[in-house]
Amino acid sequence: MNIADIVNQNIYPLSDPEFQQHCAETLDREGVLALPDFLRPDALTSLQTESRAGRDRAYFCTQSHSVYLTPRDPALPTDHAANRQVESSKGCICDDIIAATSPLRTLYDSEAFRSFVMATTGEDALHPYADPLSSINIHYAERGQELGWHFDNSSFAITLLIEKPDAGSRFEYVKDLRDADAGEMNYDGVTALLDGATQPDVLTMDPGTLVLFRGRNSIHRVSPNESDKTRMLAVLAYNSQPGVELSENARMTFYGRLA
Q1: How far is CA 258 from CA 78, 86, 117, 211, 249, in A?
Q2: Where are the domains of the chain?
Q3: Would you say the C-alpha torsion 67, 236, 244, 54 has a positive or negative sign?
Q4: Beta bridge mates, 172
Q5: 3-255: what CATH class?
Q6: Which of 114, 172, 193, 226 is the right S-S partner for 200, CB 3.0 to 4.6 Å?
Q7: Three-state secondary structure call for residue 108
Q8: First to last CA, the chain
Q9: What integer pLDDT is reported at residue 250 of this predicted model?
């Protein structure tokens, strides 16, 4: 299997400089780039079969956290935006379970795909995680499971929707709600969102859609799954520097194991 078997390059010519520039401009302007029908039908079917088969090996957990993914600050009130807790719950299978023949593996390792992501995001280099779990993940959300409001620590994220539930699991976001580099956390804006005074944008997508999202300053969540059909989503994670690994504490929290 090669990249031509996976990506619908008639629509998305990954190596075309004009297409790359268009994607980069869209991501910079909107904070999100969604490419529907990115996967060829056979590749999507293969990935759905693979993901359903791996469901029994997923590690499921539920966590409470702040939207800033930081520890509670005892100097601030419990109901302060920095301390208010939201809930995230999901299942996950890790990189070491993803088969060498998986379309995800071929896509992740493809130089053409990495070059496209670099051109779109402005990164000079992309490297896999040094640990054996974190580069490629498949996430599962059953009925009632959700991803709570949060800002990402990384500058961008890459996801690929594999299966969509019949209701719920909406990807909601508010672009540039904070400026992390300037130290502006915008507690009032976050409070308004958590209180329901601010209505987020909703990104609609179908299986086979690739999404690049700048979540460091754009708060986002996935609402609870309201159906009995599992939401399945692949996350492709790179680093700008080689040798980076997720901490042991983070691996135990998210994956329930170190290797």
Answers
A1: 33, 26, 28, 28, 9
A2: 3-255
A3: positive
A4: 202, 221
A5: mainly beta
A6: 172
A7: helix
A8: 27
A9: 85
CA distances from 134 to 38, 92, 95, 188 (A): 23, 11, 6, 34
pLDDT in tens, 185-206: 999 999 999 999 999 999 999 9
E strands present in the chain: 32-35, 59-65, 86-93, 136-141, 147-150, 157-163, 171-174, 201-203, 210-213, 219-222, 231-236
Find out whether 111 and 127 touch, Cβ atoms under 8 Å: no
pLDDT, residue 247, reads 87
**Which one, of 70, 62, 64, 66, lies nearest residue 84 by Cα?**
66
Q: With H, G, I as helix, E, B as strand and everything else as coil, classify residue 107.
A: helix
Question: Does the model's pTM come out above 0.85?
Answer: yes
Whether pLDDT at 253 is above 90: no
Q: Tell me the chain's radius of gyration from C-alpha atoms.
A: 18
